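[step 3/7] fold_predict: job queued, chain A
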Amino acid sequence: MIRNSQGLLALLGLTVLGCAGLRVNHSTSSSANQRDPASCPAHTPAEPSPALTALADSMARGDFGYVDALYVSRDGVPLQTRTFPRSYVGVYPMKTPPGVYNYQDPNWHPFFQGGTLHTLQSVTKSIVSLVYGVALARHDITTIDQPIAPFIPTHADAFRDSLRRTITIRHLLTMTSGIDWPEGGGYGSDDDITQRMENSADWVAMVLAQPMKTVPGTTYHYNDGAAALLAEVFRGVTGVDLQVYAQQHLFTPLGISHFYWKRSSGGLTDSEGGLYLHPADLITIGQLMLNQGLWNGTRVVTAEWVADAVRGQLPVEPGQQPPRLNYGLMWWTLSPGLLQDPGAYFGWGYGGQYLFVFPRTRTVAVLNQWMFEGKEMQPIAFARRIEAAIAAMPESFSRDECPR
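[step 4/7] structure written:
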């Protein structure tokens, strides 16, 4: 989840036009060169990047606060794989009671029960989008442009509203469902609507009890509740639990064998922010996206899905320019000029969880932090540091030859 996004956007120096209400199991994964046939030639650096090493050393000293991991790869070749072990016991004042949705409980956040699996928060959403893409590629879902109502039959009464009946899977993936999801109370507060959902017995019922605010598909509003519906819809469409499907058809083919995925008190896979991965395996997810859905020569998800997922889809009013920070199918995109790579995109999670993909230089970067209230390194600042470090490296191919 991403909280108080207007403040975060102010820190980034970004504004959003034409949309409303923006808030914004460790395994040894293969690092073999995975390349889409249309991509740049393989690049193996002659030596580690001094700039990346300096950045990691600075993080180890605590210059950026509570940073837990920095992983960077280029064309599947690891350039930096640094973790910064620490205990979070006593770091943040802990509210009561302890538990899986207490974000100050060091048994659950940021690491899963003292291990190496790190919370991804809303980067989970980006991976849920990928799971939907896998299901489409396997023909277990026919289209994301179908209404969700038939797939939540136990809550049929909630869809008596004719407007709510028009919500599609795509609307959930693009945060344009029209369901009201007001911010308030601050992160961790009982007045915060997402916190109330997480503490409720029936997430789906709570989300569908919220009034409709806008016509689906017309207005963007970041909505953890809409994201939570995706697990229930997925089960209704495919007949398979989201986590079970992800493990069988996404994680296992990629060699990801260790993970933890939270569930609601009602047993629903937490599709809004509940996944924990090791940073090496999150790099693998980014590499799959960079490869346009190919892994070891096997098509896991279609290139068309990847392109659709990272295409900014925020509604824009006539005469307005596209927003500088845009949203695809649960992936964030940026307007040209913000970064050297105009095609860069990323997953973004609360506390400073980033998965960046830079197609131009075929680079994937992961940063895990656990910082609050805008004190974490912001995504654009992180991306610019990574781009500068990559630009300083010797290159075995011309950037002009890379897809953009």
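[step 5/7] annotate
The chain is about 25% helix and 10% strand.
Residues 5-86+95-395 form a domain with the Beta-lactamase fold (CATH 3.40.710.10).
exit 0
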